Q: What sequence folds into this?
């Protein structure tokens, strides 16, 4: 079990019948907490850095570059943790069906 980590701060910028756009801000060491994605989604990093992904299969690091987007399909389960010594920010766009 993870020790208590500070929470990442989500700010919903848009939420309608087709999509939800959320800005995620992570202080150093902050985490989303374990969650399962209910929609396909795209992440747009606003900063460059490293995130620790804790997944059912284990742990791995993801190196992200500002402006270089990636997408994943519904069902992803993980806890996302800022592994940087500075704030990390990304925009998440969830595509509702």
A:
């Amino acid at each position: 079990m993870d020790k208590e980590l500070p929470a990442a701060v989500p700010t919903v910028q848009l939420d309608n019948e087709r999509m939800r756009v959320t800005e995620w801000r992570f202080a150093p060491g902050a985490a989303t907490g374990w969650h399962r994605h209910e929609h396909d989604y795209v992440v747009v990093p606003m900063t460059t850095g490293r995130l620790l992904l804790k997944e059912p299969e284990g742990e791995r690091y993801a190196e992200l570059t500002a402006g270089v987007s990636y997408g994943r399909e519904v069902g992803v389960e993980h806890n996302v943790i800022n592994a940087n010594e500075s704030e990390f920010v990304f925009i998440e766009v969830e595509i509702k069906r």
